Structures are given as structure tokens and as C-alpha cells.
Amino acid sequence: MSLDVVILAAGQGTRMRSSLPKVLHGLAGKPMVRHVIDTARGLDAERTHVVIGHGGERVREVLADCGVRFAVQAEQKGTGHAVAQALDGLGSGKVLVLYGDVPLIRRETLANLLAQVDEAHMGLLTVTLDDPSGYGRILRDDEGRATAIVEQKDASAEELEVTECNTGIMAMTATQLKRWLPQLSAENAQGEYYLTDVIAMAAAEGITIATAQPATASEVEGVNNRAQLARLERVLQSHIAEALMEKGVALADPARLDVRGSLTCGHDVTIDVGCVFEGDVELGEGVHIGPYCVVRNSRIGAESVIDSHSVIDGAVLAGHNNVGPFARLRPGSRLAIRARVGNFVETKNAEVGEGSKINHLSYVGDARLGRDVNVGAGTITCNYDGANKHRTEIGDGAFIGSNSALVAPVTVGKGATVGAGSTIGRDVADHSLAVTRARQVTKADWPRPTKDA
Ligand code: UD1
Ligand code: CA
User: Which of 145, 149, 132, 127 is CA-nearest to residue 214?
Assistant: First the structure.
């Protein structure tokens, strides 16, 4: 049977106190609702429908490339009414109802639930909670068969004692859903069309309500405020940390790591505390990342050491590199094997050849350095003339003295030397010395001025 997933995402999310629609708030660097969409994709859903309402246009924009269908619920008249908005677009197989603000639901849990669904059975995911307040309660008959869900606001004192709760997640066939939804009524405490009422309809038809439970309650936890979002962020991050450790990564503290994207590591990678990884990051075997680094969309080759407080963005490091502390590699930075970039150095769109060193306080942008180049402290490539960017080329084995300005476009030849404090605006030939600073004047026994009496 084919599968349609319907994701409810029309609610306002008032308690987030945000201009951003709730389901677009990020979890591990990705909007909550995208986690749910990705899970649906993992189930090989034929179609995924997102029911939008509050902030619907923003949601539509952000999800434009997700390949989902949108159903608009102009007015929020309840969960049953929300699902009904997607009814026309459903196929003839199974339907799974998920929530844009319940981001950590696992594929395995859902696959389990779906496996039980056919024309004689529907599936309902329930969870037993110490504090069930606010949740719909699962009612069961003497034989333990689920027969109905009663909402908190409609429940009797006796029903409120029940601790088995409705997660809201359920699955049925499209035929069943199309039969039941038009029968919903809003005659209840909240005046809403409750999706939960389909349970009693199913039971009345003699359809078995097969219940299943998630592995942990976090899977079915919804986000209503920022504290809950932050809590789920830690839950998700702890899963990511565990998976990394299983693959042989040494984490100084699994609770002080944030991965907002995909992080792939070779064996014996060590990561100190407080690091953030964003986008697609690959760390080769034996790479060490010092404390408080940010690495975004970069590849760091084997046996490289990144010292503390470095920011590496859109860079490729071949391996055996030393970077930082306090280095900033910006997009287009490429370090060949054994190249070093030290403290307070910024590189951008720069190739640094094998074994070359830029160890202190420099800016190297739009440049190519050959192998074994030594760039002295405080060297600046003046790559921008106020209108255009220009390139700096430095040949193999060149030595750039400290506090030099290389005014691009300019080439420093192989084995050439630039004297400290020079401003180089013309090409320097191979193996020559260029120095532009004024000659030093020394006056012997010079009397220092004294204060007037
Ligand atoms: C719902 C369930 C309750 C369950 C609880 C789990 C119903 C009637 N009740 O209650 O049994 O224990 O979830 O959290 O289903 N939504 C829409 N359009 C609407 C109404 C809701 O898209 O018209 C979306 C909301 O954005 C939200 C979700 O559906 O993501 C749940 O709605 P909410 O009002 O929070 O349901 P509860 O009252 O908590
Ligand atoms: Ca409600």
C-alpha cells in the first residue's frame, strides 16, 4: 500500500513569542518541520502534505525545495479539521498523521505503527506519562482494547486518572479516514473538530485500534515554547554525540558539542569542548579540534591540529595542517599538506602550498602561495582597490618579511625575499630581494628634548 504523510503545521505557536512560525524554529540547524519531512522521506512516503495556516507563506517559502504538497487551513478549527484540508490530495493507501512541532519522532517507531494498519486495524501511538495533564487520555475496555480518546477538557474525574496519553500520531487507511472525517462534530468543550474522535468511530465499526509506544517520551514531545525547544535540542545533540563516539570519535564532553548539519569523522578524531559544526563537515583520521572552534562546510585532512577558538568556513585542508589558535579560514581557503596558519591570521580564497607558514597576525586573500613560503607576522595582501579584487602570487620558497603590504595584483617570485616593513606594488623577480622601507637614520649622542621651565 502507498503512504501519504500529513504533517500538521497550522497552529500559531503563541508561546514561542516570535515572529517566526513555530515549525520553522531551528533544531540542530534545521527547521523543526524539516526534521519531520525528512523522517517521512525515510518511510518512503509517496506524498507528504503539510497543512499550513499561521505564517503559512513563510512556511511555504522555506519548504519550497522539499517536494511536499501544501494544504491550507485558513482557520484553525481543530486537528480533525486540519487533516481534512489534505483529504482531496490523498492516495488510496495508508495515511500517517504527524506534527510539525514534534520533531524527534523516529522512523523505526512509525514503521512499526504503519505495519499494523489495514482495513481491519488502525494504528495509534500512545505514551504513558507521570504527569498526563493537558493530553488526551486513552480509554480502554475490560479486555484492554482501546475504544476512545477523551480530551483533558472533556474528561471526567475518573478519566483524568488515566496516564496513558494520546501522542496525536496515528495511522489508518485513506478509505477509513475519508469515511470518518466528515462525521466529526465540534460539539465538545473546545468547539473543535477533534481528530481524536476517529478512535471511537473505528472502535464502533469493530476496527481494532493497534497501539504502539515510542522508545522514549522525547520522541513524541511537542514544542510549545523555547524551553521545550532547547530541551529537545540537547536530546538530539546527545544522540548525535553518542553516534559519533560509537564511530570512534573522542569527545571531551558529549554534552558540550553542537552539530548543525552532517559531521563525518575518521577514526581517532578528538574534539574538545564547545565546538560547533555547521553544514557538511568532514574530519580525517586523527584530526584534533581544540576547544571553542567553529567549523562550517569544510574538509580537514588527516592528522591536522586545529587549536582553540578557530573559525573554519568553506575551507579544504589537505592534512597534517596546523591551524590556530584564533585563526579564521574563510571560504576558498585551501591548505596543502603540512601548511600552517597561526594565531590572528585570516585567509580567504587563498591557496597555501605544501609546508608554507603564515604564523601570525596576517591577512591573506585572493592569493596563491607556493610551497615552503614563509609569511612574516603582520603581512597583508592588499587585494581590494575599492572597486575590484586582485590576486597575489607568491612563488615557492619565498620569504615575506614581517609587516609587509603586498599590493595586488602582484607577484613575488620563487625564492625571492621581501624585506620587513615593505610595501610591494611591483613584481619581485625570482631569487631577488625587494625592500621599500626608508633607510634608518641614527644620530649619535642625541639630546632628547626637555620640558620648558
Ligand atoms: C492534541 C490531541 C491530544 C493529544 C495532544 C498531544 C486533539 C483533539 N487532541 O491536543 O489528544 O494528547 O495533541 O500533544 O487532536 N493544529 C493545526 N490546526 C488546528 C489545530 C491544531 O494544524 O486547527 C496543529 C497544531 O499546530 C499542533 C497540533 O495540531 O501542531 C496539535 O494541536 P494542539 O492544539 O496543540 O493539540 P492539543 O490540544 O495539544
Ligand atoms: Ca487545542
Answer: 127
| Catalytic annotation present for 360 | yes
Query: What is the enclosing helix (H) or strand (E) of 359?
Result: strand 357-360
CB of 342 shorter than 6 A to ligand 1:
no
* Rounded Cα distance, 32 and 102, in Å: 8
Using CA positions, which residue lies closest to atom 25 of ligand 1? 11
The answer regarding whether domain 247-434 maps to CATH 2.160.10.10 reads yes
pLDDT averaged per 10 residues in sequence order, the chain, 453 residues: 97 94 98 98 98 97 98 97 98 98 98 98 98 97 98 98 98 98 97 98 98 98 98 98 98 98 97 98 98 99 98 99 98 98 98 98 98 98 95 98 98 98 98 96 96 90
> What separation in Å is there between the alpha carbon of 78 and the centre of ligand 1?
7
CA–centroid distance, 169 to ligand 2, in Å, is 15
3-state secondary structure 260-283: EEEEEECCCCEECCCEEEEEEEEE
What's the confidence (pLDDT) of residue 387? 96
Strand stretches in 174-212, DSSP E: 208-212
Ligand nearest to the CA of 195: 1
**Cβ of residue 11 lying under 6 Å from some atom of ligand 1:** yes
Q: Which atom of ligand 1 is nearest to the CA of 73?
A: 18
User: Does ligand 1 come within 6 angstroms of the Cβ of 76?
Assistant: yes
Cα(65) to centroid(ligand 1), Å: 26
**Cell numbers representing residue 247 in the block:** 564511530
- Which of 54, 239, 288, 360 is catalytic? The answer is 360
User: Who contacts 306 (Cβ-Cβ below 8 Å, separation ≥6)?
Assistant: 287, 288, 289, 290, 293, 295, 300, 312, 323, 324, 327
* Cell reading at 24: 520553522
CATH for 3-220 (3.40.50.360, 2.60.40.60, 3.90.550.10, 3.30.420.40): 3.90.550.10
Backbone φ, ψ for residue 355 (5° rounding) = 70, 5
Domain ranges of the chain: 3-220, 247-434
CA of 36 to the centre of ligand 1 (A): 16
SS3 22: helix
